[in-house]
C-alpha cells in the first residue's frame, strides 16, 4: 500500500517535506488527494511533536508546550466529496515504527493543562512504556503487562467557516465566564507554535488567528479518544467542506476509557492505513448532521475478568449533586486509585495506569435521582500478582 504522508521521526512537523497541521480551519490546504474507494497509508508523529523523551525525568511533561498539540497528518482531499455528504473511513490497519518501540503517558501539571483529577494530582508525572509485539510494560509502573489496542486518538474533517466561527464564539463565551480559572475552561485560538502545512504570508497570519485548537472533540470528530476505534473500525463523518479534508493523529498504543490524565493514552508515533468512500447526500439521508457515527472493529484485547469500582455523584465535601456523571466517574476513579495504593502503587502510578491500560468506564445509571452511578473496571489479568481482596 502506498504511503501518501510520510514523516521523519527526527524532525518536527513544520520541518517535514510535507508538513501537517495543528489547527482546524477550512483553508488549510490538502497534503494530497485520493479518490473514493482508494486505500492508502499515513505516518503520524506523536501528538506533542517530539517534546517528550524516553527518560525518567518528568520535567518535559511539566514544561510541555501545549500550543503545539496536536500535530496531525493531512489533510486528505477526497475527490468528488461535497458538503452534505458522509465521508466513510475504514481503518484497515495501524501499527508502530520498528525504530521507536516505546510510548509515554503523563499527568500534566495543574498550571499547564491539568487533568481529570488535577485537584488531587496537580504535579507532573511521567511513565514510559516499552512495546513487545502486542504487549507493553513500564519501568515506572511495575508488575503490569497488557495487550494494547492501537488506535488514533484524533481523526476528523475540516469545519466550514461558519462552523469554525461557531466553535470560537461558544468557547470564547465559556472562557469569559471564568477567565482566571486554572486550568482554563477552554483553549482559544493562539498564533503561538502554529503549523499550517505549506501556508505562508498573510494567509498564514489569518488562519493562525482563527484556527481552532485541536484539543477537544467537536462536530467534525476530532480528539474523541475512543479506544475501541482500531483496525476494522468504520467512521461516518459529516462533511462540511469540499473534499472533506480528513486528518489523523494522536496515535495511542493503549488507553483506558476517559483518557483521564489528559496526556492520557500511551502516546506514540506510528502509521495507519485507511480506505475512504462517500455516501452522497448522506447527512440528510441518515440524519448524521452534527457528529460522526462509529462502528468499532472486531479486534480487542481478550480480557474477561475485571475488578470494578463504583462512584456516585456526591462531592467529596458531602455536597449532593443532581445526576452529575462527571462527579460520579471522578469518584469511581478515585476509589480505584485508593484501592491500587493498597497494592503498593503510588497515587500517581495508579492514576497513570487507569489512563493507559484497557480500563472499561461505564455509566451504570443516570435516572435514579439524585445520584448517577459510574464504574471503572480494571482487567485482573494485567497484573502479575493477585490483587483481589482476600
From TrEMBL:
GO molecular function terms listed in the Swiss-Prot or TrEMBL record: formamidase activity
Positions of transmembrane segments: none
Lineage: superkingdom: Bacteria
SUPFAM superfamilies (alphabetical): Acetamidase/Formamidase-like
EC number(s) reported in the record: 3.5.1.49
Ranges in a coiled coil: none
InterPro entries: FmdA_AmdA (IPR004304), FormamaseFmdA (IPR054833)
Keywords annotated in UniProt: Hydrolase
Keyword Hydrolase: yes
Cross-referenced NCBIfam families: FormamaseFmdA (NF045496)
PANTHER family referenced in this protein's UniProt entry, alphabetically: FORMAMIDASE C869.04-RELATED
Protein's recorded name: Formamidase
Higher taxonomy: Bacteria, Bacillati, Bacillota, Bacilli, Bacillales
Originating gene: fmdA_2
Amino acid at each position: 500500500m502506498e504511503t501518501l504522508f510520510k514523516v521523519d521521526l527526527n524532525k518536527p512537523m513544520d520541518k517535514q517535506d510535507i508538513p501537517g497541521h495543528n489547527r482546524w480551519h477550512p483553508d488549510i490546504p490538502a497534503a494530497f488527494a485520493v479518490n473514493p474507494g482508494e486505500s492508502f497509508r499515513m505516518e503520524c508523529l506523536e501528538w506533542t511533536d517530539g517534546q517528550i523523551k524516553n527518560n525518567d525525568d518528568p520535567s518535559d511533561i511539566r514544561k510541555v508546550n501545549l500550543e503545539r498539540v496536536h500535530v496531525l497528518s493531512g489533510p486528505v482531499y477526497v475527490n468528488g466529496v461535497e458538503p452534505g455528504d458522509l465521508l466513510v473511513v475504514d481503518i484497515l490497519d495501524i501499527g508502530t515504527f520498528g525504530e521507536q518501540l516505546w510510548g509515554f503517558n503523563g499527568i500534566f501539571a495543574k498550571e499547564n493543562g491539568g487533568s481529570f483529577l488535577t485537584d488531587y494530582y496537580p504535579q507532573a508525572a511521567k511513565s514510559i512504556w516499552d512495546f513487545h509485539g502486542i504487549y507493553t510494560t513500564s519501568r515506572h509502573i511495575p508488575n503490569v503487562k497488557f495487550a494494547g489496542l492501537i488506535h488514533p486518538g484524533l481523526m476528523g474533517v475540516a469545519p466550514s467557516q461558519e462552523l469554525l466561527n461557531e466553535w470560537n464564539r461558544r468557547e470564547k463565551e465559556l472562557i469569559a465566564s471564568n477567565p482566571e480559572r486554572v486550568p482554563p475552561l477552554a483553549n482559544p485560538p493562539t498564533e503561538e507554535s502554529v503549523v499550517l502545512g505549506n501556508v505562508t504570508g498573510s494567509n498564514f497570519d489569518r488562519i493562525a488567528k482563527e484556527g481552532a485548537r485541536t484539543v477537544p472533540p467537536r462536530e467534525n470528530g476530532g480528539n474523541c479518544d475512543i479506544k475501541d476505534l482500531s483496525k476494522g473500525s468504520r467512521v461516518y463523518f459529516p462533511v462540511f467542506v469540499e473534499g472533506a479534508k480528513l486528518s489523523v493523529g494522536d496515535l495511542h498504543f493503549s488507553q483506558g476509557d476517559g483518557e483521564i490524565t489528559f496526556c492520557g493514552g500511551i502516546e506514540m508515533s506510528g502509521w495507519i492505513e485507511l480506505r475512504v468512500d462517500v455516501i452522497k447526500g448522506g447527512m440528510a439521508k441518515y440524519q448524521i448532521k452534527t457528529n460522526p457515527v462509529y462502528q468499532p472493529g472486531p479486534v480487542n484485547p481478550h480480557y474477561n475478568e475485571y475488578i470494578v469500582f463504583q462512584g456516585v455523584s456526591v462531592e467529596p465535601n458531602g455536597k449532593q449533586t443532581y445526576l452529575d456523571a462527571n462527579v460520579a466517574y471522578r469518584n469511581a476513579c478515585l476509589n480505584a486509585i485508593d484501592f491500587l495504593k493498597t497494592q503498593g502503587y503510588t497515587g500517581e502510578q495508579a492514576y497513570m495506569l487507569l489512563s493507559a491500560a484497557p480500563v472499561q468506564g461505564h455509566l451504570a445509571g443516570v435516572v435514579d435521582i439524585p445520584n448517577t452511578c459510574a464504574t471503572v473496571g480494571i482487567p485482573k489479568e494485567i497484573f502479575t500478582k493477585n490483587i483481589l481482596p482476600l
